[in-house]
Amino acid sequence: MRRALTWLKALAVHEARVWRGLGLWAVRRRDGVGGAARGFGYARAQGSTMYALLFVCVVETAGMSFFTAGHPGLHEVVLALDVYTMLLVLGLHAGCVARPHTIGPDGLRLRHGARLDVRIPARLIASVRPELRFPTGNAPADGVLDVPIAGQTSLTVELTEPLTVRRLLARPVDVRTVHCHADDPAEAVAALRALLPAPTGA
Q1: For residues 143 and 61, what is the distance between their CA atoms, to the nearest angstrom?
Q2: Considering the entire predicted model, what is its pTM?
Q3: Does 173 score more than 70 pLDDT?
């Protein structure tokens, strides 16, 4: 029972973040960007897929609206569910656009829309490199965090010590290697490397 309540609470928080992300996207604001924190987008690769899914939802809504027109009560319920689904799909993508990764003096803030928000202090970053990968979908190895977008990651960040990461409806895990995606991995790598201490003897 306690676990079910924990899941329900997590889902409620997630949904609230989805709607907030949709609002931020609608007014063209990016959360967490400003001052010394630079934003690095990661949602471009999934844009066409998400908008295609949204189009399918629109077509389905139109079809169901036609077929249920003779049943006012059912029509209203189905229409409400369809509109909710369309907004949810749009909100999932909008949240990724409105919540970019950020890099600043404090380190890397790694995000995936409303689902993931991990702060990696600069002192824990051992190295970073561009690396294009296509995770299989299987569970990653122990100590590894995969955050793919459209089935790919383009950055690998190695940590000096384990960092505890909490994900939606999943147990906390300790990670030392992070694979994530950025629209411009070269620029993100340069920004992260600027945070690293100069090599000894440089």
Answers
A1: 43
A2: 0.88
A3: yes
